[in-house]
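Entry 14. Ran structure prediction on the chain below.
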Amino acid sequence: MKLIFPMLLLLGLLTGCGDKTTPIDEPAAQAVADTTTGDISVYQQAVMHPDRTNADRARDAGRKPAEVLEFFGIQPGMDVLDMFSGGGYYTEILSRVVGREGSVVAHNNEAYAGFVGEETTNRYAGNRLANVEILMAENNELALQAESFDATMMILAYHDIYYVAPNNGWPKIDGPRFVEELYRGLRPGGLLAVVDHYAAAGSPHETGNTLHRIDPELVIAELQEAGFVLEDKSDVLRNMDDDHNVHMGAPEIRGNTDRFVFRFRKPR
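Output, structure tokens:
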């Protein structure tokens, strides 16, 4: 692994359990001059990898990971931070896209780890994703090594900056400091990839707490204030039938919400 974080707790516990090994040496994980092998992109190869679980595959239709990662421009050889990685759905795909010459740091906190349970244990068992490191850091204790990453992913997690549940291990986050830390951790020219659930236009920050949605204009304003540049948007995860005033976890919409996809850049 290429990254060292002396200020943070990097856990190797999950990589030592189990006996199944899958070396990251398949074609999808090779560092290549571009992102295609024949007519199949490195993103499609990563999604099609035979070692992925059925549970992950069932999420693909709603998440479109190949299209999303291609839009963000994740490349073989990159060092990527998967912030609030949860059970590691995206971590595994990223691992295979960046390949041997790249690395992925999968961040969680105790609240996320408790929520996903054994999913992470199974995913990282037997060192099956050898270019992945696990980072446990609480929300207000994040301290990234400066200019460590080529890309940071925040998938369906930006709204959690405004989630408050101290009894469940989620105290109020110092949002400006948190975003500043993400900025500091990126190399010049690095990208911040944000996907989240649309809230109704004009919704307050508190919607991140109540509906687990956020108004995209708030995200843009906050990240630009921190120094990021909004480079591009994608409509790949739009669903115009979604009611932006309904909780994102409501049974009728869960997994198929209307989502914005933004690519921000740290200036060089």
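The domain at 9-265 is CATH 3.40.50.150 (Rossmann fold). Will compare against last week's run tomorrow.
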